[in-house]
Structure formats: structure tokens, C-alpha cells
Amino acid sequence: MSCSRIQTINLKEHSFGRTPDTIIWLQIAGLQEEHFALLRFNLQASNKMTSFEKSTCLGKAWAFNLYDLRPKVKSSFVSQMVGSNNIKSTCQDYKQDPFWKIDKDEAYSVGIFEMGVDKRNSVLESQQCPERSSSWNDPVYWVMRPPGVNKKTFHYQEKIQLDKGGVYFDKSCKANICFASPFVNVKKIWNKFSSNSGKKVFILRDETYLKALMKKDISSAREMLGELEKIHSWFNQKLGNKSNTLILVTSAKVRDFEFPRNGKEWAEFEKSGKHVIYRNSSLLSPVFASGASSENFCGIFNENEIGKRFFWVPKRKRFDLFNF
Length: 324
Fold this sequence. Notes:
globular; 10-stranded mixed β-sheet; alpha/beta; about 25% helix; single chain
């Protein structure tokens, strides 16, 4: 007893070497750590931390592949999901199995929720590729885009469908406006998705935040970041105390810019996007992890290593678990 020691990481108690049964993955295009200033300096208490900052581990991922130094958003996220830097933004990318098939013996139910993602950037593109891996047929897809003719739909006030391989478009979306909030949609979908037993992967893909930054629409960017923070905080409150859950946040096409100094310039920046110096997208993107296997996401690594890190366990640990 006197020799025992509680294991911690980032000043918190932590159980190392746990393989997650539930994975929540937020893919937020354009996000950088310093952007949290949009939320923190808009609060009465600027020392109040966002839920992202409370993550157990912070890592950095090199965002390049064999063909591009600064890949497109979809290329980066597909690279993260399939564990390869051989990404050409063609159907060839989907010949590769995604991370939920790394362990052939483990069966995960997969749900993918997209918002602000154009048709050409959606992973739904995989369904148009005849030579794709059959693993891309596994997810249920919910998309915050207006439904086309004869398309299946979902609505937060109606029963959510969970057909494997099904694609559902948000009934509340008209033209370029969706009247349901992402937070409300995610809560409704997750509560239904998680009601079935078994292991689960839920991926949220967002490009709304990046689009607002590209337009220098700081007000919309802050609003969207606040919505994403609310979703992340809700998952942490609901699942954060479960030892078999991993909550991960990654980014792509990180939008670097220099914030204004302070005072009047900062006020004008928040109002109209003035006094901001935009730069090239960053070569490194942030990774935030909490829960099972989160220790695997500390440090600096290539973005194509992300998928492999969900289930990595030291050989000695594997041996111990096997003997136990």
C-alpha cells in the first residue's frame, strides 16, 4: 500500500492503456488553440476555461501528405481516418479501410454527422466509388443540408432513423439556412444512436466555422465556435466519467491569423473583422483528447497516425491483459 501511486496526466487521475468502446470525434476545420480567445474574452471572467482546454492531452499533427504541403480539408480528415498519407482526393482514397476496421475482431456501430460540408467535400462521396472498401458502407450519415428530391430526411422533433448505410438530410434546412441548431440535432441523434448496445463511433464533421473565418465574419465564427464548444462540453458531461470513452477533437486547414492588439481595435475586430492579419494555413493542426487512450495523442505526429492511435496499447500491456 505504501508503495502504490496514483497515475496522473495533466494533473488529473488517469487510467492508462484502456481501449475505447465509445469514440466521439469532432473534426473542426480551421480550428487553432488561440481561436479560443473568441470565447474566453467574450465572457465576464476571461480566466474561465472552455471545455476544449480541459482536455487531458494536447497534441499537434503535421498536416501534409505525399502530394500536398497544405491539403484540402477533406483530404486531411480522410487521411486521419484511414491512416495513410497516400491521399489523392479521388476514389482511390476510399479503397483503404477506415480506422474502425483496424481491428477486424471488433465491431463498431458508426455514425457520421456533417454540417457546413459541401457535397464535393463530404465523405458521402465514397458512395459514388464502385471500388471503395465495403467499410464505408458501415456508417449512418446525417447531413445538415437541404434534402433533394426523394431523399431520406431527419428532424430533431421526429424519430431518428438508424439504418446502416442510410443517408438522412436535415428537414429543417432550406436553401443556405438550417433552422435547427447543430447542438439540438447532435443531442437528439446521439440519444437515439447510443440507445443500442455495442461499441460506437460518432464523428462530427464541421466546415461552418472555417467558412465564417474565410469570410472574416467574426461574429458568425464566434457563434459557431460557441456551438461546437457546447457540443463538446455536453459530451464531456454525459460521457466524461466513463473510463471506456474517448472524446477527440482534430482540425484541418488551420486558419492562422494575428489578433489585433486590444481596446478599440479589438472591438472593431469583433464587430466587422477589421485589424486582422490573415496568414497561410498552418502546417500543424491541434489535437485534443480526453478519456480512454487519450495519452496516445500527446506530442507531435503526422495526421495519418491519428486513426492508429485509438487502439494502440504497449505490447507488455497487451500481454498483461491477455493473461488476466
